[in-house]
Design brief:
The structure is a homotetramer of 135-residue chains. Chain A is of the alpha+beta class and 135 residues long. The first copy, chain A, has 2 helices and 6 strands. In chain A, strands 1, 2, 3, 4, 5 and 6 form a 6-stranded antiparallel beta sheet that branches. Chains in contact: A-B, A-C, A-D, B-C, B-D, C-D. Strand 2 of chain A pairs antiparallel with strand 2 of chain B.
Chain lengths: 135, 135, 135, 135
């Protein structure tokens, strides 16, 4: 049983749109920023060795507005580990409030064949530290 | 029974990321670009009169890569009309291939109370032209 | 004596910021979108063969606002050709009005040495069609 | 005689482009992120009271690459104060190296008339703390 991977991002002025708040597409940017730090620390983002991580599916619930200026805490957990897929769950938190929840399905890609590869045991071992099954 | 609302966007060089293809967050940008044109034509994006449209939920299936240079066709339909919600389904198409499918739940917001308002009959009538229930 | 290279871009909803107009950083995005189309057509954007184009200096005069929805025409000319540098001048035009003028210094990079290389004669010949010295 | 206003930004994965480094338009984003924090602290970004700051001119020298993952330090100084204009000079620093230098001309806008207004004495007093004339 692991713990969430926690990181932060500062909201940039240009993240806002003409409605006065952070544009919805920036939620995807912030979620990715959190995921790639986790994935990079796990050694899965390794184009030099022919491996990369791609996103297969995103489910994103917009719960609250994000505003400039401000900072966002990004909590990410490994929710499920399949044979070839990694399910990640995330929360964007600002001012102590959950602004968004996301469920993502990732796959590790062989950059040459452009096909998903089975998750190796050493990858699983590293990912285990962030497994939280009831997030 | 209506027909999809179709629009296009050119891929910009900066839409790509270090993996060589269009970054996944840009899919959200392109989907929004298609939705707001539809919503604007329906008169629902009207901050001057106190109305705006917000996104409540996004489900996004990444099916294929997008690359620069290129153009994307964005097909959007009104999938379901609730009392206070609009379900929109969309496809991103490039080079004749579906690169992504999305299901979005939108709400019309009273900009003063920041609460969702029931869909007015004149809005429904306009939205009807893009209703496709088996998209 | 050549003619400007002309291309267009649609303004995206998320290009706007909380001041209600297109964010100033998007002007850089649109200028790049125009430049890379020109540079790509000239065969200078060729990572597979070890060549890429980098920007060395940008001078950008903001003359008018850009707004959503809208389209921008991007005019680009080759202003001067040096031994190792290309000076490009550009205009962003929307609704028949100049929204920005830019002067850019580019260099062709050897991707392995990461150093600027002298402009080859065949590159010069191609670039000549867009040379306008009094833009 | 003042001191630079110093702030930081984390590089996001989607800031990179297909050339493998941070896209040049993101330099404009990072510079703006630094400027608006300064301008906001000086009370000049105040749409509620009818004032906003716009950028009139940008000169930007690209000196080095920025890469993901990484953090950027943004140093900003008030270089000159005119009757109606503020000249700001900035540096982007990463890993102890200057990646870019910028010179910006700003104006304070009356949001109703959309015209530049003379700098008020209380604004000048606040801005004085960041005046560095040989930056």
């Amino acid at each position: 049983m692991g713990a969430p991977y926690v990181t932060t991002q500062k909201i940039r002025f240009c993240d806002t749109d003409m409605l006065g708040h952070v544009n919805n597409s920036v939620y995807s940017v912030l979620l990715e920023a959190g995921r790639v730090e986790l994935v990079n620390e796990a050694g899965l983002l390794d184009p030099a060795n022919g491996f990369g991580v791609v996103i297969v599916r995103l489910e994103l619930d917009f719960i609250g507005e994000l505003n400039w200026p401000g900072e966002v805490t990004i909590e990410s957990v490994v929710y499920r580990l399949g044979t070839k897929s990694i399910q990640v769950r995330q929360r964007l938190i600002s001012n102590g409030t959950i602004a968004a929840k996301a469920h993502t399905v990732l796959a590790v890609l062989d950059m040459n064949t452009r096909k998903a590869v089975p998750l190796r045991d050493d990858w699983r071992k590293t990912l285990d530290q962030w497994v939280v099954e009831d997030f």
